[in-house]
Amino acid sequence: MDGITSAICDSCTPMITPIVTLASVKEKILIVVNIMPGSQRPYYLAAKGKESGTYIRVSGTTRPADSIVLKELEFEGVNRCFDQTYAAPEESVTEDEINCLCNKMYQYAVEHCRSEETAERIYRMTKQRLLSWGFLVKRGDDYFPTNAFCL
Questions:
Q1: Residues 100, 68: one domain?
Q2: Closest CA to 57 of 43, 75, 77, 78
C-alpha cells in the first residue's frame, strides 16, 4: 500500500495525500484509494501538465477535463464561484448604481409576492447585504462589482 501512496504522490501535482485502505468484497481483498478534495485543486498528472493531465469522473467513466471544468475546479479549490469573481477589477461602482440594484431587487421581490401581507414583510436590500452575499467587494473606500452584481 505504501507503493500505491508513493506512486500517487510522485505522479500528481499539487501534492495529494491519498487514504489507502483494504476492503473485502465477495471474498476478495480490494485496495480502496480515497482522495479528498483539497484547497489547491485541480489535481493533475505532473507529466502531462494541468491542461492535458486533469481528469474527471462522468457516469462511471474517466474523461479529460475541458477548460471550463478546469476553471470550476480552481474556483472550488479556493472556495469561490463565478458569481463572486470581480466583473471589472478596475471599475468601481457608484452609490447610485448600488442603490439602483437594491431598489430593483426590492421591487422584484414585492411584485412576486402572492399577497399584500407578504409584500409588507419584504426588507429593502442594503449595501451591507450585497457585500455579505458576494455581489460587491470593498477595497479601501471603493466598491467593486462581482459577476453577480452585473447579472
A1: no
A2: 43
Strands (E), 26-130: 28-34, 44-45, 55-58, 61-64
Single-letter amino acid, residue 144 = F
Residue 81 to residues 7, 42, 59, 84, Cα–Cα distance (Å): 32, 14, 24, 6
What residues does 33 pair with on adjacent strands?
20
Indicate whether 66 and 21 sit together in one domain: yes
Same domain membership, residue 75 and residue 121: no
Q: Going residue by residue through the chain, which has 151 residues, state the pLDDT in tens, using 9 for 90 and above.
A: 889 999 999 999 998 889 999 999 999 999 999 988 877 889 999 999 999 999 998 998 999 999 988 888 887 766 566 666 666 667 889 999 999 999 999 999 999 988 888 888 888 999 999 988 888 988 888 888 888 888 7
- HSE of 2 in the Cβ direction (CA atoms, 13 Å)? 0
**Shared domain check, 112 and 44:** no
Rg (CA), the chain: 23
**Entry pTM:** 0.52
Q: Which domain holds residue 39?
A: 2-80
